[in-house]
TrEMBL record:
Gene3D superfamilies on file: NAD(P)-binding Rossmann-like Domain
PANTHER family (UniProt xref): BLL7886 PROTEIN, SHORT-CHAIN DEHYDROGENASES/REDUCTASES FAMILY MEMBER
PROSITE patterns (UniProt xref): ADH_SHORT
InterPro entries referenced in this protein's UniProt entry, alphabetically: NAD(P)-bd_dom_sf, Sc_DH/Rdtase_CS, SDR_fam
Protein name in the entry: SDR family oxidoreductase
Similarity field: Belongs to the short-chain dehydrogenases/reductases (SDR) family.
Secretion signal span: none
GO molecular function, one term: oxidoreductase activity, acting on the CH-OH group of donors, NAD or NADP as acceptor
Biological process terms in GO annotation: fatty acid elongation
């Protein structure tokens, strides 16, 4: 039990096939109690109930600072404290550079970047007061390679921003014993990607993946567990490339 008595907040974890939900399920299996935050309260509560008793689901739009603060306080009130934050909420749009309108830019950067900042800010004072915390931020291989079939340049920019933000937080919060690390998943089969892949696209993509398979949400969840738990107690500011070897 790697997360016995640990309390974790996971944003964007209501989507049934999503990475956040897989993380929530794995954390619960490892003895953790989980607060699932997502746009729709009913969906968040249903996802929490689905992973077992004792977990909670709350409505929270991570682009709204007030929402993040309210959700953080509610989790602390109901579950007692918070040890782990997984900044997972994210959206993408498959646009080319000249097709990105201001509202596209804002929508995509707001969820990943503003969301990571606001949700972290909402919990850092609490983690500081406990002199303990582990924050995991979901970036993407798109940040490293520049684009991909599902992410436009604004998505790459937002996810690269997440890496910078995570490293800056890691540096600043290290003395408070709060670790901050990132994951850069490759192509993972979720609602963002699944269903939109033709067999031809899949064959083409697999040529660039040495492990010769697409990723599963569980692959990302496993690495997230490592970064969230004490197994990675001397790691901060690092990025784990959960991509089957895409960058070799
Ligand atoms: P998903 O679409 O299955 O789930 C994303 C969740 O975020 C949804 O439940 C959605 O309701 C929620 N969400 C959206 N906007 C929100 C907001 N403003 N506030 C709160 N919640 C919000 O996505 P996924 O594929 O599971 O992706 C999870 C994370 O991993 C994202 O940050 C994504 O960019 C990143 N990622 C995914 C892949 C992939 O291939 N699927 C690859 C690299 C990185």
């Amino acid at each position: 039990m790697l997360l016995k008595d640990k309390i974790a907040v996971i944003t964007g974890a209501a989507s049934a096939r999503g990475i956040g939900k897989a993380v929530a399920r794995l954390f619960a299996q490892q003895g953790g109690r989980v607060a699932i935050l997502d746009l729709d309260e009913g969906a968040a509560a249903a996802a929490a109930a689905d992973i077992g008793p004792g977990h909670i689901g709350l409505a929270c739009d991570v682009t709204a600072r007030g929402d993040c603060e309210r959700a953080a306080q509610e989790v602390i009130r109901r579950l007692g404290h918070v040890d782990i934050l997984v900044n997972n909420a994210g959206i993408t749009q498959p646009l080319k550079i000249m097709d990105i309108a201001p509202e596209n830019y804002e929508a995509v950067t707001d969820v990943s970047l503003r969301g990571t900042l606001y949700m972290s800010q909402a919990l850092i004072p609490h983690m500081r007061s406990r002199r303990s915390g582990s924050i995991v931020c979901l970036s993407s291989v798109s940040a490293q390679r520049g684009g991909g079939i599902f992410g436009g340049p604004h998505y790459s920019a937002a996810k690269a921003g997440v890496l910078g933000l995570a490293r800056a937080m890691a540096r600043e919060l290290g003395p408070d014993n709060i670790r901050v690390n990132s994951l850069t998943p490759g192509l993972i089969l979720t609602d963002i990607t699944g269903g939109k892949l033709t067999e031809q696209m899949k064959t083409e993509i697999l040529k660039g993946i040495p492990l010769n398979r697409l990723g599963e949400a569980q692959d990302v969840a496993n690495s997230c567990l490592f970064l969230a738990s004490e197994l990675s107690s001397y790691l901060t500011g690092v990025t784990l490339d959960v991509n089957g070897g895409m960058l070799i």
